[in-house]
Amino acid sequence: ERAKLTAEKQHWESRAAETEKTVESLRQDKANIHAVLKQLELTREEEGKRHASEVEGVRSNLARKEQEWTDARREAAAERARADEERESGDRRVRELRDGLRAKQDECMKLSEEKVKAESALQLAQLQAETAKAALASASASAQQQQQQQQSAAPAP
Question: Where is this region: Disordered (predicted)?
Fold first, then answer.
């Protein structure tokens, strides 16, 4: 009976150690996800600023071209063709930048969902660890109680 209780105690200690490893691994995963999310947030902000600057540059360039058309009517046809081409390029670039930003936002949402899943897994692992610790404590108390009963039942020498 004592060997059985010792084996059960060792089993629960082993389970508790495994659960602790799992909890620590999940904590590390959570920290890594937080770091990636922070980096993505910073990258998104930097890209947003850069994109806004590029958009403003395109708008400024188009305004300058329109003034040139007014000033140089003799070259209006050639200037219009060039400015239209630049405008289309700018619009394409704006669309590309918006699509890129949308993709980054989707990636952030996906990582946020993964973070929630990781946190749920961490909570579950912590609950399992607490359950294992309680079972270990119960098994230990039961073993001590049985040992005391055996000692008190044994005849005194």
Answer: 1-24, 44-100, 129-157
